Amino acid sequence: MTIDLRQPHHTIWPARLPRELVLPETSLWFNTEVVAKRYPNKAAYLFFGRALTFRELHDQAVALAGWLHSRGVARGDRVIVFMQNCPQYSVAVQAILRADAVVVPVNPMNKADEFGHYIADSGARIVITTADLAGIVAQADARLPAEQRLRELLVTHFTDAMPEGPLDPAEEPAAPILQWLRAKPDLPPRCTAWCDAIAAGHEPRAHESGPDDMAVLPYTSGTTGLPKGCIHTHRTVMHNVCGGGQWGHSGPETVSLGVVPMFHITGFVYYALAPLGSGATIVLMPRWDRELAARLIARHRVSHWTCIPTMIIDLFASPNVASFDLSSLRYLSGGGAAMPQAVAERLRREFNLTFAEGYGLTETAAPTHSNLPERAKLQCLGIPIFGVDSRVIDPDTLQEMPVGETGEIVSHGPMIFKGYWGHPEATRAAFIEIDGKSFFRTGDLGHMDEEGYFFITDRLKRMINASGYKVWPAEVEALLYRCPAVQEACIIAARDAYRGETVKAVVVLRADAKGKTTADDIIGWSREHMAAYKVPKLVQFVDALPKSGSGKVMWRLLQEQEAAGLKAPA
Asked: What is the dihedral of CA 70, 75, 80, 85, to 10 degrees?
């Protein structure tokens, strides 16, 4: 790859970092082989005080890969992982990679109405999940045509990776979380227990995957239609697995707090894969709990924490914040939403910590940009990382914009995905050619300053950012149209003091529902049929949605009215 040294950020590039990375010509699984030999007795994960060593992780993954092969999984087959953060998540990922298959990480907040799409679209025939979600998988599967249904459902309990008996008070989460972790829900018929699959003793076939084989198929939504899978190879993902450690001063001595969901591309790369490359230890949290997070940071001397700004905001809201010991932290990073400047300044003032924001997408296997820990700018995406060429272009003329001028951010780099699964037209539309190189169109509007730092200004794509969760209105609208009371719906963003943005539904009721249906009814139905972060927090009823001459709903007009504090005409 040729690096354009004319880009301004190269004048401030630290001497400690190479301009681009030399990646190993191996699969991601090979990292697990190596780390298990280097650090066999070191904790890969700590989960409520119980350690899973690198050797144990390796051995469980090999056994599980053998079970997958015994169930007919072949090279290139897709296998869904559907669970909250726990050590079994990483074991499942390594097992799928060892079996030469493809990991399909799915958001555990999805309901049955949403989950069926991932089975059908990916062509997966095996799902690995936790007991609390097994019923959702079974419901979704039962609604599919026979030829699309699953062959196997592998189920684990959180307690499979937790200490036996009472937890140490320093490791114990809030009571509702602990009750959820220890629950033993009824399981659907024809599922296999995690421990039984590992104990079966199946030997996997020889590992054959290379760097250019598909490794991961994470899903992203968009302006229209259902979520699309992003094709990532071992090589595209390996780049950020290797690069994250160099950028953030991470190595085998690192202890990270793992609370960003592992289904999310950031959590997936940094918690499920990066430790297998670096030998770092991850202290895993299945759900956010601010008091527990503070205790874990102090108890395990956590050095690195990748998070979303709302977690920091919530941490500061604790009445116990003055007693929190965060002195071990030396690298605090994240993204998904802008860090409020006042909060960032308080971090610096009270804890001597700089929040280094980064920027990336599912299509880019996490970051393409990041702030240098030694030279971070607030409310900034950072500079293009190793081997990345990013530019700002006019979205209509595709001409490059001058420094300081707003346009669409486009990126060329080794971590860019290979295309959308089964959507060749969407793939073609996502790329443009500049100077003989293929650039991915992010759909985000921003500008670059004179030092090469990038700043996000707006979005070209229709999307709501709620605490870092990306909500795509078209997907929520499609689900709302299934509600018996809804005739038409348009989803827009509303301001929210905590989440930054939240979801608002502008709804036209069916004639027989008028006067009988309340906003709470719509919200209640939504909670049963879609992931919690997609559920409208606000509902406004109108007699009709504004439409263009071609009959399209004028969502932008409604969005502008919301931003101006005006209600849509009832």
From this structure: 90
